[in-house]
Amino acid sequence: MKRVYLISVIFLLVLTAESRGQRKVSNDDVIKVDVKRSYSTKKELILQDFMDVEYIVLETNDDFVNQGVVLDIGKNLLLIKNKLQDGDIFVYDRYGKALRKINRKGQGGEEYLYIGHIILAEDSGEMFVNDPLQRKILVYDLFGKFKRGFKYNIGRSDVGYLDVFNYDKDNLICYDKYDKETSFVLLSKKDGKITKEIKIPFKEKKLLEQTMKDDKGGTYGAGPGPYRSIIPFKGNWILLEPSSDTIYSFLPDYSLRPFIERTPSVQSMDPEVMLILRLLSDRYYFMEAIKNEYNFNTGIGFPITFFMYDKQEKTFGGYTVYNGDFTTKKEIYMVSPKPVNHEIESWYSIEAYQLVDAYKKGELKDGKLKEIAKKLDVEDNPIIMLIKHKK
Fold first, then answer.
1. Is the Cβ–Cβ distance between 347 and 305 less than 8 Å?
2. DSSP H or E stretch at residue 164
């Protein structure tokens, strides 16, 4: 009788752990990546075969001329800025109609110096402008009226959060690459206080960058460019800390589940080879292995191996991805798309003059993109291509 009771208790404990998102993950559930491997063959893929694509024509007028850098996309609104830090925020509706332009750049307490991110919260009618130079988030309504602001990272790191996303109605999820212990946190939208520290286990902090001191004692650095540290995916959040040998999925109950494991250990390598994620779909995971070395004399470094994992075939390999709306092989570079939210995996900007030229050369297939190109002027704003998960 005691034995039956003991088995029952163990069974209940297992069920409880699974209900809390702490289910033991088998080795088959976790993808194993060898970052030293090379890939001689490439598979050719059509983007539209594994992702949905939507095109948005940004209205162009005297007040709405921009470079089409997407800040955030909601159900009803689209926020755009320029590559240059002029402070302009262009507010469009979801279909590209120009609504208003906002600029609160300045040195006052209600103004931003630099736009790192803007997080759109349509449910509360707010925009959260992340200014990493001030280590500050400024909150405005959707017409640019200041509501509140708060400092962050005080006493933790000397820089601002490099990635910020809308986690839920109360919190933002943020990433600080220079924090030596806790890179990821949940931050209160109300006052900027940390509501949850998300600790990714690693032995020693590793940075994907190289630094060098000049003759005057100053320090300057180099890196391979921005990478995705937080990726919204299937209702969870993929968290990438290059110092760790495991990339985790952060679940709604705040638990961590291994998603990808790398080998050899980043802690054992000199120079390190860092594993980076670029785009995730239901079938393909696009990744990079970047060697952490740079020659400041030649300006050459950070060699990259581009590869993907095919979930269906359970194989790794090289790849080339093409836009299926072109008759020619128009490549989509997986290094370019940026994360948006759980519905929209990424966005890609297409210059108007490039589309006009492609149309004149007969390089566009019949469909939405060709219809757009027919009406474009070479000086129009860029076309925004949204890369969305298949429904």
1. no
2. strand 163-166
**Which tokens hold the place of 283?**
């079938």
What are the mean pLDDT values of the chain's consecutive 10-residue runs (391 residues total)? 38 37 54 95 96 97 95 96 95 97 96 95 96 94 97 78 93 92 94 95 94 82 91 94 97 96 97 96 96 95 96 96 97 81 92 97 97 97 95 84
Closest C-alpha among 232, 212, 135, 209 to residue 176: 135
Helix (H) / strand (E) containing 217: none
Phi, psi of 14 (to 5 degrees): -65, -45
Which residues are within 8 A (CB) of 320 and not within 5 positions of it... i.e. 6 or more apart? 42, 43, 44, 45, 331
What count of Cα atoms within 13 Å lies in the side-chain half-sphere of residue 12? 6
Sheet holding 315-322, edge to edge: 42-46, 315-322, 304-310, 284-291, 273-280
Cβ within 8 Å of residue 50, ≥6 positions away: 281, 282, 283, 284, 390
Note the residue count of the chain.
391
Amino acid identity of 22? Q
pLDDT of residue 28: 57
3-state secondary structure of 140: strand
What tokens does 339 get?
Answer: 């994360």
Mode of pairing for the β-strands spanning 344-350 and 315-322: unpaired
Asked if residues 318 and 42 have their Cβ atoms less than 8 Å apart, the reply is: yes
Tens of pLDDT, residue by residue over 148-185, are 999 997 767 778 898 999 999 999 999 999 888 889 99
Q: Is 18 strand, coil or helix? A: helix
Q: Would you tell me how many other CB atoms lie within 10 Å of the CB of residue 145?
A: 11
* Main-chain phi, psi angles of 207, to 5 degrees: -115, 135
Q: What is the DSSP string of 289-344?
A: EEE--EETTTTEE--EEEEEEETTTTEEEEEEEE-TTBSS--B--TTS-B---SSE
Q: Which domains occur in the chain, in start order? A: 27-388 (2.130.10)
